[in-house]
NUDIX domain-containing protein
Amino acid sequence: MSSQGQEPRSPQSYLPLINKVDNVPLSFDFNTLYRLFLPNDSRPHGFMVQSTVERLPWTLDFRIDHAERVVQLLNSTVKDDEDIGMTCTAAFQRVVDAAIASDSFPSLNKLHSEHFKIIGANHFVSIERFPAPLFGISSRGAHMTAYVKTSEGMKIWVPRRSAHLFTFPNLLDTTVAGGVKAEDSPFDCIIAEATEEASLPADFVKENARAVGAVTYCSLNKQKGTFFPTVLYVYDLELPESIEPQPGDDEVSGFKLMSIDQVKDAMLGEQFKPNCVLVMLDFFIRHNTITSENNDEYLEIVTRMRRHLPVPTSPERRFTVDEPGNTSYLGFIHCGRASFEPSFNKSLGGDYQTHEAYAVVSCAASYFLFISSTMTAFVLKHYRYTHLLR
């Protein structure tokens, strides 16, 4: 054991488990997929497998360009007197309804599902959860790991999924998890799922759950014709030994308090729902269970938890120096990316020179606002100090 009391190095690798979920390599050529565009937005919001594009029952709301590999939701769909988001949502729904009626896609299970919002869209656009991967649209999930500090060390409450579930029956899961509905925030999802699935007191969860980041990954399944860029918002909840999760609905068959070693063994034995492995690995990294001292793959694991998604994750913004309230960290991030990754936007079908110019302007605007706010704070502080001396 090391001087920090950490575990010895383990020869077992978590990377095959990560690869099962995040199976799109960074070198992947996205030009082999069709890009999905929304009206008046030059950014692709989805990447579609060719076989799916050929099989979906498209309506006249969409233009399909096979030569350019583009699926465009047309401007003509949007009327001046209508809400853009609602109109786009309705256009997607017409295709989804026809796809479900035709029973051409087993992943839809001939069922409708709750709506997920397209997280990077400039307007509130949503699509049903089950067909979202057919359009290559990013989805949001929220996962919370509940743990207990016992005399024997940290332990984690692990549920087992019910046998009747359509996806991943009988596998182990994160303590509380669910897809984030279109109108909800990730924390709304956590509170609702904690109450419904684990019978945890809502007030206790609101006061004690901690947002600790997000996990991102991309899944491609050519057999099913799906591309699935995913964001999982991650939360931690420390529970006292007096509070025990209990099944609140029929989606969970039971909960078990497992030691860290038991959880690791279950992960390596592929007993967990695949994407929950990423959430658990993130938990282990943040709680110093997996470190660079005890795992040679530490950096690979860490970087794979936060991969860049090929679709937008926030609405499009244009920053100007004289516009108040537009301080953003993204200016600095884009500036660095434009400087060191000249092929970045080209790989996603964008115009790099346009993005580079925007990145430089964003960087300059952010820097100017940072300096201005710093000087303002200094002047106010100096004024207050000299005023007190009078």
